[in-house]
Structure formats: C-alpha cells, structure tokens
Amino acid sequence: MEMIREPMPIRTKEIMRRTFLGSLMGAFIGGLELWFYEFNLRHGIAAVLSGAFFGSALGIFGSSMLKGIKTALILCAGVGGLAGALWWLIAKPNVNVGFSMGVGAVLGILFVLGEGNWKMKKGSVQQINQGDGE
Asked: Could you tell me the residue range of the domain that residue 105 belongs to?
C-alpha cells in the first residue's frame, strides 16, 4: 500500500526556507569574521557554526522580531548569547563561557540596532515599513 504524503503547509515551507538561507548567510558571515579569531581549523569551524546558528534562529524567529524593538532586542540578545556559548564550546578559548555569551549577546543587540529602520512614535519604538508604497 502506497502512502500518500500531503504537501507541507506554506508557513512550514517558508520557515524552512528562511532557516536554510539564514544558516547559509550566518555561516558565510561567521567565516568572514574569522580574521578576528585565531586562524586555525577549530576557530574557523566555531565561527562558521555559531554564525549559522544565529542566522538559522533569525530565520525561525524572524517574524517575532516585527512585534517591536524590545522583542527584537531580547530575542537577538538571547540567540547571540547562545551562539557565543556554541562558539566557546567548539573553540575552547582561554576565556570564561560567560564572557563569550556576553559578547554574543552584545553582538545580537548591535545587529538589531544596526538595522536602522526603527523610529520613535508616542513613546514606543516601531519598525518602519520600507518598500510598501506608503
């Protein structure tokens, strides 16, 4: 008896696509940042995998970031901290894991603030929609 597979919902396909593309771009950016670390295979793998982790998490939770800057800051700081811990586990540097997580959290916050499309409106910060013709 042949099993009939139903197609995945569009939402699942979209999240998988964003996750895949986010991990590819994160790995690429992690590889570009290799000059900052020691130039050896262990640090290279750590940089690429932590970048891929950060990018894939943004692919999964990216729509949650549109709720506001506070949500985006908390999300990216948390994911950045986890990416810093992943980097520390692989690279085994001579620093504390808390320091690596702190650096990852700060880089996650800078990622959100670097987007530059947030504006103040009545005491809250909102993201500016770009390219929607309004």
From this structure: 11-114
**pTM score of the predicted model:** 0.71
Spatial CA neighbour of 113 closest among 69, 65, 75, 82: 69
Calculate the alpha carbon distances from 114 to 43, 54, 68, 75, 110 in Å.
Answer: 26, 16, 15, 15, 6
Could you tell me which residues are beta bridge partners of residue 125?
Answer: 120
- In the chain, how many domains are there? 1
pLDDT digit string, tens, across residues 8-39:
566 778 888 888 888 888 888 877 776 566 67
User: Angle at Cα 111 formed by Cα 125 and Cα 26, nearest 5°?
Assistant: 140
CB 49 within 8 A of CB 78: no
The answer to the question of residue 130 being in a domain is no
CB-CB contact of 84 with 51 (8 Å): no
Classify residue 81 as exposed, middle or buried by CB count within 10 Å of its CB (0-12, 13-18, 19+). buried
